[in-house]
């Protein structure tokens, strides 16, 4: 059976039915969590980052030494900016990639969304934690950008290894190895973006609204001076 080696996007025919059903169940849960009380002013931002995710994941780079291709995923960026809304962008982006570009599969949209979306949610949740711990902005971006991609690749590896209809161990290992450069590139890219956005447009970082302004004195501190 021929299954295209398109990065972390699993194609139809690769996984057992139980794993496909579990993927859609997970996607429903993520979307229910993501769409709860979506505000009208959030919709343009979700649309912009859905488009960014779609475009970045649609440009494939073939690797001469390995029989596969890789692409940027941007799930770390989507997670840090959109927070718990990230699965909306991921699900729409993956559906459009299949419908317009035949990238991935129809039956695997659910499991692919979980593979990409779970690390995005983790990045969004960890961003305010790292900020409270006063981790430098660039380091935060590197850890969350690279970590989200690494998380997606590891989940892809485990799903292929444990849920494949056939023995996909070699395929899983190749995809894991091929994405090491992507982890590095996306980590550095998000590090630069987080450093820049925190200086010029901090409201773009979705979690920023929930955080105290650590870099500015509070009213109590001002009054005591």
TrEMBL record:
Name of the protein in question: Uncharacterized protein
KW Membrane (keyword) present: yes
Top-level taxon of the source organism: Bacteria
Gene Ontology cellular component annotations, sorted alphabetically: plasma membrane
Membrane protein topology class: Multi-pass membrane protein
One Pfam assignment: CbiM
Keywords, in A-Z order: Cell membrane, Membrane, Transmembrane, Transmembrane helix, Transport
């Amino acid at each position: 059976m021929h299954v295209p080696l398109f990065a972390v996007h699993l194609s139809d025919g690769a996984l057992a039915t139980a794993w496909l059903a579990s993927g859609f169940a997970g996607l429903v849960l993520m979307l229910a969590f993501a769409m709860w009380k979506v505000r009208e002013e959030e919709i343009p931002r979700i649309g912009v980052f859905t488009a960014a995710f779609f475009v970045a994941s649609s440009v494939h780079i073939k690797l001469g030494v390995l029989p596969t291709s890789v692409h940027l995923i941007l799930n770390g960026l989507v997670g840090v900016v959109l927070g718990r809304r990230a699965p909306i962008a991921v699900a729409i982006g993956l559906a459009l990639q299949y419908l317009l570009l035949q990238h991935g599969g129809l039956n695997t949209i659910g499991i692919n969304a979980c593979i990409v979306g779970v690390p995005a949610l983790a990045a969004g949740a960890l961003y305010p934690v790292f900020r409270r711990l006063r981790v430098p902005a660039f380091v935060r971006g590197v850890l969350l950008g690279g970590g989200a991609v690494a998380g997606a690749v590891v989940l892809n590896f485990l799903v292929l290894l444990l849920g494949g209809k056939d023995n996909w161990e070699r395929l899983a290992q190749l995809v894991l190895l091929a994405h090491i450069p992507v982890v590095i590139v996306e980590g550095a890219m998000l590090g630069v973006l987080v450093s820049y956005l925190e200086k010029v447009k901090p409201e773009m970082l979705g979690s920023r609204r929930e955080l105290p302004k650590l870099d500015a004195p509070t009213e109590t501190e001002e009054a005591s001076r």
